[in-house]
Description:
Structural class of chain B: mainly beta
Radius of gyration of chain B: 13 Å
Number of helices of chain A: 0
Distance between the termini of chain B: 40 Å
Oligomer: heterodimer
Number of strands of chain B: 11
Number of helices of chain B: 0
Order of helices and strands of chain A: EEEEEEEEE
Shape of chain B: globular
Distance between the termini of chain A: 30 Å
Helix content of chain A: under 10%
Largest sheet of chain B: 7 strands, mixed
Helix content of chain B: under 10%
Largest sheet of chain A: 6 strands, mixed
Mean pLDDT of chain A: 97
Number of strands of chain A: 9
Shape of chain A: globular
Order of helices and strands of chain B: EEEEEEEEEEE
Largest interface: A-B, 26 and 25 residues
Amino acid sequence: QSVLTQPPSVSGAPGQRVTLSCTGSSSNIGAGYDVHWYQQLPGTAPKLLIYGNRNRPSGVPDRFSASKSGTSASLAITGLQAEDEADYYCQSYDSSLSGSVFGTGTKVTVL
Amino acid sequence: QVTLKESGPVLVKPTETLTLTCNVSGFSLSSGGVSWIRQPPGKAPEWLAHIFSNDEELYSTSLKSRLTISKDTSKSQVVLSMTNMDPVDTATYYCARLVGLWSYNCFDPWGQGTLVTVSS
């Protein structure tokens, strides 16, 4: 059972901006641990999209941006494209569980 | 280029022990750590275990009694064993390199994953 909660689905038309949320608690995001985001295209392994709350690895388009505040984090996709249709997961550390934890995941659909 | 690749049985029977191997390339296990992560069909990933470069092991609290992680640095292999398999353990099992300090870490890259089905 995931301790980070994400909306099950988000959709938008091509070119639009969508925002995905990741809600945690005082033992994970609220405790100051970093939040990371992964993109999982159908049938593939998760790929690191954002690390350290807001940093993009080399090769990730700047259409993807992220932030963290309090016990939550968010990922924004601007200029939505068909290729962005995927599942997105947040990840952090939980001190109560003494391990890495993942969000429940959000499926992004491009209309 | 860092790559990881999982291998192991596709099908295991209930109560059996699962043993998976992760072959890494592009970095040495004497300087980097590897985690195992699983993802049941249609569900979110779940972190299972981690082994550090100094051989320290960490386990998911909920599965600790069933898991053992080990490594052979000379062979660039990390092995995960899970005892007493149950149908609810059916999932794609991934190994991934840990990046950053533990508790602030992310996972990059991930292996391609191996689907393990538990059924009699």
